[in-house]
Amino acid sequence: MDLTDLAVKIFADGADIAGMRVMRDKPYIKGFTTNPTLMRKAGITDYEGFARSVICAIPDLPISFEVFADDFAAMEAQSRRIASWGDNVYVKIPVTDTSGRSAVPLIRRLAAAGVKQNVTALMTLQQAQEVAGALAGGPSSYISVFAGRIADSGRDPLPIMSACLRLMESEPQLELIWASPREVYNIIQANDIGCHIITVTNDLLAKTALFGKDLDDFSRETVQMFYSDAVAAGFTLTV
Predict the structure, then answer these.
(1) Domain extents for the chain?
(2) Using one digit for the tens of pLDDT, what is the confidence trace for 73-110?
(3) Which of 9, 30, 92, 116 is catalytic?
(4) How many alpha carbons fall within 13 Å on the CB side of residue 188?
(5) Are the C-beta atoms of 14 and 20 separated by less than 8 Å?
(6) Tag placement on the chain: N or C end, fewer CB within 10 Å?
(7) CATH architecture of residue range(s) 3-210
(8) Under 8 Å CB-to-CB from 199, ≥6 apart: which residues?
(9) Is 92 part of the annotated catalytic residue set?
């Protein structure tokens, strides 16, 4: 399967600038996202310096950078600063603060000011409905529903994602992101339901090389792996 044939847009998710440069040259990569957790894991300490380096390296694809304040006034100030860094920048706004207070009033103000947003960490249809309403009439923006974490809770994310797509139909400038995928098959699922975007880490993207692989060959190679590891470990049994 050729990833460029899929309708769903693949956004590379990470904070390794070298890896981001590699992904930039892949024809199936249509954008980039990152977040404070990924940046911390990558050892980044200069937030703005990193962001500006990424924008310089990737000036022609959408890139999302997240605010990291926990009060809405500071979030708004950070949002406006981040948005000023480039026309391809989307500002990631968490759907709530850490106390669970809704960010919808802030989202509405930013949309009215023309700030392109990536509203993140949504997990319910009600959240999506409120956020879509706040973004209505504004600029191009994303609604990022964490389908992978919904699945982690033992729930099927497909009905929620499909319902989100339906409620967004009247606002064509809004796109739904399938966030936090857990396996490469999620790319196919997102594509099949008509989801606009899926964010994928480089580790998961590497597994797409297996798409269409002959399952008999895959089975034999798995058996070979078990055998080789047993030999390498020096396992013996007296029989």
Answers:
(1) 3-210
(2) 999 999 999 999 999 999 999 999 999 999 999 999 99
(3) 92
(4) 9
(5) yes
(6) C
(7) Alpha-Beta Barrel (3.20)
(8) 11, 12, 13, 33, 144, 177, 178, 179, 180, 181
(9) yes
